C-alpha cells in the first residue's frame, strides 16, 4: 500500500511522534535523554525551527514544532536528531541497525483552536502512562519550563501560551491550572486520530483554509467545532 503524502505547512505548528523500532527502548538512562535534547536544541537553531513542546518517553518522543518559512526543514530536523541518536546508541551498545521506526508521524495544528491542547496532550503523556501522578513530576518534558521550574531557555513559547497573561509568573500559574483542569470530551481522541492519520488537527474551517493554501484536497475531516481559548 503506498504511503500517504505527509502534510507539512510552513508557518504552522506540527504535532510529531516518532517511536523506537518495534517499540524498543530508545532512552535507557539520563545521558540518552540529554543527548537527544542537546541535538534538538542545536538543530532547531540551525534550521530556524521553533520547539513549543516536547516529551521524551522510554520508547518514543512527542514534539510540537513549527518549521521555518521552508517547510522542508521539519524533515531535515527530524532526520538530523534521529540519525545522531541512532549513531550514539549504536556506538554505546556496539550494535548496528535502526533505532527508530522508518517514518515519524506529524499533524499540522490549527494554532488558535488546538495548539495549547496539543501541548497539554504532549506534556501529559507520562501521566497517561502512569509514570507520574502529575506532569511536574516528570523530568523529560517541556512542562517544567512552562510553569517556571526548569530553565530551558532554548524552548520557544508559543503565541497562545504567551497570551495567557502579561507576566511570566501569571502565565505559569494559569498554564498549571489549565493543564490540571478538565479535558473536554473527545479532545484527546481527536488529537490522537489526527496524528495517527497524518491529517490536520483543527476544525473543518481549518481544513478549508489549508486546502486553499496547498491547493490540494485533504481527505480526512470530521474534527468538529473549534475549541474555546483558555480564559
Task: Explain this structure.
With 231 residues, the chain is an alpha+beta fold. It has a single domain (14-206), classed as Alpha-Beta Plaits (2-Layer Sandwich), CATH 3.30.70.1290. The protein is 43% helix and 10% strand. The chain has 9 helices and 4 strands. The chain has helices spanning 30-46, 72-93, 111-123, 125-128, 143-146, 159-162, 168-180, 187-197, 204-214, and strands at 14-19, 50-56, 60-66, 105-108. It has a 4-stranded antiparallel sheet, with helices on both faces. The longest helix is centred in the middle third of the chain and has 22 residues, at 72-93. The chain starts with 13 loop residues before the first strand and ends in a 17-residue tail after the last helix. Residues 223-229 have low confidence and may be disordered.
Features:
231 residues, Alpha-Beta Plaits, four-stranded antiparallel β-sheet, 43% helix
What is the count of DSSP helices, taking H or I runs of 4+ residues?
9
Order of helices and strands: EHEEHEHHHHHHH
Name given to the CATH architecture: 2-Layer Sandwich
Question: In percent terms, what proportion of residues is strand?
Answer: 5-15%
Q: What is the molecular shape? A: globular
Computed over alpha carbons, the radius of gyration is 17 Å
Number of spatially distinct domains: 1
Structural class, by secondary structure, is alpha+beta
Q: So, the CATH homologous superfamily?
A: Transposase IS200-like
Top-tier CATH class: Alpha Beta
What percentage of residues falls in helices of 4 or more residues? 40-55%
Sheet with most strands: strand arrangement: 2-3-1-4
Average pLDDT level:
91
Amino acid at each position: 500500500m503506498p504511503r500517504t503524502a505527509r502534510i507539512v505547512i510552513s508557518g504552522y505548528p506540527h504535532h510529531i511522534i516518532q517511536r523506537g523500532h518495534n517499540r524498543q527502548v530508545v532512552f535507557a538512562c539520563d545521558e540518552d535523554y540529554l543527548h537527544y535534547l542537546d541535538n534538538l536544541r542545536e538543530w532547531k537553531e540551525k534550521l530556524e525551527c521553533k520547539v513549543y513542546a516536547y516529551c521524551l518517553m522510554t520508547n518514543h518522543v512527542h514534539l510540537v514544532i513549527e518549521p521555518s518559512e521552508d517547510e522542508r526543514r521539519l524533515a531535515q530536523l527530524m532526520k538530523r536528531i534521529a540519525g545522531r541518536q541512532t549513531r550514539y546508541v549504536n556506538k554505546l551498545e556496539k550494535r548496528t541497525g535502526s533505532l527508530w521506526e522508518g517514518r515519524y508521524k506529524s499533524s499540522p495544528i490549527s494554532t488558535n483552536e488546538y495548539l495549547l491542547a496539543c501541548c497539554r496532550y504532549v506534556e501529559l503523556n507520562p501521566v497517561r502512562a502512569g509514570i507520574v501522578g502529575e506532569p511536574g513530576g516528570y523530568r523529560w518534558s517541556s512542562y517544567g519550563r512552562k510553569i517556571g521550574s526548569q530553565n530551558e531557555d532554548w524552548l520557544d513559547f508559543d503565541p497562545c501560551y504567551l497570551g495567557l497573561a502579561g507576566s511570566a509568573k501569571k502565565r505559569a500559574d494559569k498554564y498549571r491550572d489549565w493543564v490540571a483542569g478538565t479535558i473536554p470530551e473527545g479532545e484527546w481522541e481527536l488529537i490522537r486520530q489526527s496524528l495517527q492519520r497524518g491529517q490536520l488537527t483543527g476544525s473543518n474551517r481549518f481544513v478549508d483554509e489549508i486546502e486553499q493554501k496547498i491547493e490540494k484536497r485533504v481527505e480526512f475531516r470530521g474534527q468538529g467545532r473549534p475549541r474555546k481559548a483558555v480564559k
